[in-house]
TrEMBL record:
<comment type="similarity">
    <text>Belongs to the bacterial solute-binding protein 7 family.</text>
</comment>
<feature type="signal peptide">
    <location>
        <begin position="1"/>
        <end position="26"/>
    </location>
</feature>
<keyword id="KW-0813">Transport</keyword>
<dbReference type="InterPro" id="IPR004682">
    <property type="entry name" value="TRAP_DctP"/>
</dbReference>
<dbReference type="Pfam" id="PF03480">
    <property type="entry name" value="DctP"/>
</dbReference>
<keyword id="KW-0732">Signal</keyword>
<dbReference type="InterPro" id="IPR018389">
    <property type="entry name" value="DctP_fam"/>
</dbReference>
<dbReference type="InterPro" id="IPR038404">
    <property type="entry name" value="TRAP_DctP_sf"/>
</dbReference>
<protein>
    <submittedName>
        <fullName>ABC transporter substrate-binding protein</fullName>
    </submittedName>
</protein>
Amino acid sequence: MFKQFKASVLVVAAFTACTLTGAAWAQDIKPRLIRFGYGLNDDSVQGRAARHLAQEVEKLSGGKMKMKTFGSASLGSDEQMQGALVGGAQEMMVGSTAPLAGMVKDFGIFDLPFLFESEKEADAVLDGQLGTRLLGKLEPKGLVGLVYWENGFRNMTNSKKPIVRAEDMQGIKLRVMQNQIALGVFNQLGANAVPMPFSELFTALETRTVDGQENPVTTIQSSKFYEVQPYLTLTRHVYTPWVVMASKKWWDTLTPDEQKVIRQAAANSRDFERKDSRADSTKAMGVLEKEGMKINTPSAEEIARMREKVKPVVDKYTQELGPDLVRELNDEIKKARG
Ligand code: TK8
């Protein structure tokens, strides 16, 4: 009796396996090779999430679609990869919204400082109406925006002194991401802002071409900035996300089933990446302390003063981005804050 039961379970299991594989075969999926580029090194949140994405693509396509990942900007900086995707020379990438603002100016809203207070708020806005609409604006420019990954709240590091007050930024040559708003914000705070692609940053810090930079603690750790930057100030001044994108030229050659695989894999990678990023933030702080970085957190009053100080720049770019868009963003954040 038991034996017979076991046998029938086996038969059912075998049948299910057959129909499932049968379904996968019935799908219109051809062998494909996808090149996926990113800027951080293999041993970073981006690296882990890229590998996860590659596994998902392979799994969901029944092994037909293969993704090869290229870290450390080996396919180029964010900006160069954006161009390669538009031209159809590269299939996929992940990069920051800041350089994307050169193509779709609206992405500049994420460079406005002191907007989000928590990751939860960021998730709600990015995955909600506003974030989705912005992704849609990439298509006419030749990019298919799929999902947002977390980069995280950005903090300042430098080789000169702890930033206790806004005035301490005076005279610090600070690398910023490549757009007008980032440049304007940090110059207004008193720094001497220098826009530069991330791929050139470590060397620039090492050779003292610049004194400082700003990035989330996960990146400060994985890119080993602590080796050349003794001071870390936890300002959490901005939350700029990463966007996973595909070349529109390439995307249009995919069958609907193949596009579905990529969309689903991207959604799965987003959930994996955000979880990993949040766990890694805590771990990274531990490493940075152990590595001897001098870490300080400015008081709430000092952060309020910084906020006040950048207000003219925020006002200026609110006009440029469109007051309605910025209002919508602030409303969505408020809603998420509850
Ligand atoms: C990596 C960059 C990086 C970003 C920056 O290519 O440029 O500082 O934070 O993550 O996108």
